[in-house]
Amino acid sequence: MSSRICIPREIMAEEGRVAAFPESVAHYVRMGFDVAVEAGAGHAAQQSDEAYAAAGARIVADAASLFGDADVVLKVKQPILNPTLGRHEVELMREGAVLITFLHPAAPSNHGLVRMLRDRNITAFTMDGIPREESHAQKMDALTSMSTVTGYKSVVIAADHFPKFIPMIGTSIGTITQAKFLIVGAGVVGLQAIATAKRLGGAVVAVDVREDARKAAVSLGVKVPGFEVPEALARGEGGYAKALPDEWLEREREFLRPLLSDADIVISSALVPGEVAPVLIDDSMLRAMKPGSVLVDVAIDQGGNCAATEGGRSIERDGVWICGRQNIPGSMPVHASWLYEKNMREFVSNLFKKGIAAPDLQDAIAARCLVTHAREIRHRGALGAMRAA
Ligand code: NAD
């Protein structure tokens, strides 16, 4: 009996990514899968229906029959209500099918979706569950891929709002000085923002609570003024950041205040896994920023590092632009998909390495990504968050 992989068109607003390019379709066909792609699925990522068909996919115009025929659905964003059909994408899937996508199952806003997947007996895997510390999982690390896009694009967004040059420019009538960047949070997003700001000719300062992150920033040749937090307070499970106690957050805000006043562009990307983002920039700090300066609050999907950021909007406050663009990778669909679909191909190859009839649920990477199976919720983070809610 054949097994069918389906790649739907993403229907979330302003989402241009796709879960497979034609190269991966050809790979799935070689693995033995039938492959169906929804018409127009790759359009925003510059992948034509013809290219998918040439790679061996069947092109399906109707989302309902595409989902309904799928044994395995590969997506980018979590399933949502299809407004054209008036039915939720989970309802369109047949019971017992496999779904692989970003689900962020611990986030309270997604608990209803997780229950829906459980009740429909979907075996769902989340791409944000890939264990990043395991070297053989690196090729599947979709979070790092998307953070790379976000870090780069955050600087481009800032440049677009900034009413000045970023590099130093010498002219016959004088010299324009270079823009000063402050990067708050030097994880994957922050480090890519540092690299991009430097390429544009900015002078960069970075801050992070973890020593590893500060060292990585220094290795990129930027200044890292020493806000040092005791290791036990800053580093949690797996070496990731921990939520700082209120007293230390207050100290950090005082430390950041003069750096913010001095900066032209601030990229804030400080996150603590599984928690809302720490609020590091309050209204009084914003008021102390220079008119014409720009803050891109990349942490907005987790609530934001600045109290004033509005999700999905750019607002001006006392001459300072505060940008709360959400889902930044979706706005750079070609390379975001190029990275994601390769991470997905590695994940699928590993998941079905014992045969395409069934996923290998014993595999250590698969087990970390499993969200629902056999009408049960299996994801530790989601279960913990649901109990706490
Ligand atoms: P993240 O998005 O969860 O956090 C972003 C950054 O915010 C982190 O560097 C964190 O230390 C920092 N932060 C948290 N609270 C802060 C505060 N109050 N003030 C300032 N900064 C604060 O993290 P991420 O970028 O997804 O990954 C973090 C780390 O994970 C990486 O730097 C790396 O060490 C590790 N990682 C490893 C691999 C791998 O081994 N393959 C892959 C990806 C990431």
CATH homologous superfamily (4th level) name of the largest domain: NAD(P)-binding Rossmann-like Domain
Give the low-confidence spans: none
CATH architecture of the largest domain: 3-Layer(aba) Sandwich
The top-level CATH class of the largest domain is Alpha Beta
Radius of gyration: 22 Å
Largest sheet: 8 strands, mixed
Number of helices: 14
For this structure, the CATH topology of the largest domain is: Rossmann fold
Q: Mean of the pLDDT scores? A: 95
Distance between the termini: 43 Å
- Strand arrangement within the widest β-sheet reads 3-2-1-4-7-8-17-18
Keywords:
six-stranded mixed beta sheet; 35% helix; 14 helices; alpha/beta; globular; eight-stranded mixed beta sheet; Rossmann fold; binds nicotinamide-adenine-dinucleotide; 389 residues
Question: Can you give me a brief rundown of this structure?
Answer:
The protein is an alpha/beta fold. The protein contains 14 helices and 18 strands.
Could you characterize what this model shows?
- The protein has 389 residues and is an alpha/beta fold.
- The chain folds into two domains: 4-129 and 332-379, NAD(P)-binding Rossmann-like Domain (Rossmann fold); 151-330, Rossmann fold, CATH 3.40.50.
- Helix content is 35%, strand content 17%.
- The chain has helices spanning 22-31, 49-54, 63-68, 89-92, 111-119, 142-161, 188-199, 211-219, 231-234, 246-262, 283-287, 333-351, 364-369, 380-388; strands spanning 4-7, 34-38, 58-60, 72-74, 81-82, 87-88, 98-101, 123-126, 169-171, 174-176, 180-184, 203-207, 265-268, 294-297, 314-317, 320-323, 370-373, 376-377.
- An eight-stranded mixed sheet has the order 3-2-1-4-7-8-17-18, with helices on both faces. A six-stranded mixed sheet has the order 12-11-13-14-16-15, sandwiched between helices. A two-stranded antiparallel ribbon has the order 5-6.
- Helix 1 (22-31) runs parallel beside helix 12 and helix 6 (142-161) crosses helix 7.
- It is globular, with a radius of gyration of 22 Å.
- 45% of the residues are buried.
- Residues 132-133, 138, 141, 143-144, 147, 184-190, 207-210, 212-213, 239-241, 244, 252, 269-273, 278, 280 line the site of nicotinamide-adenine-dinucleotide.
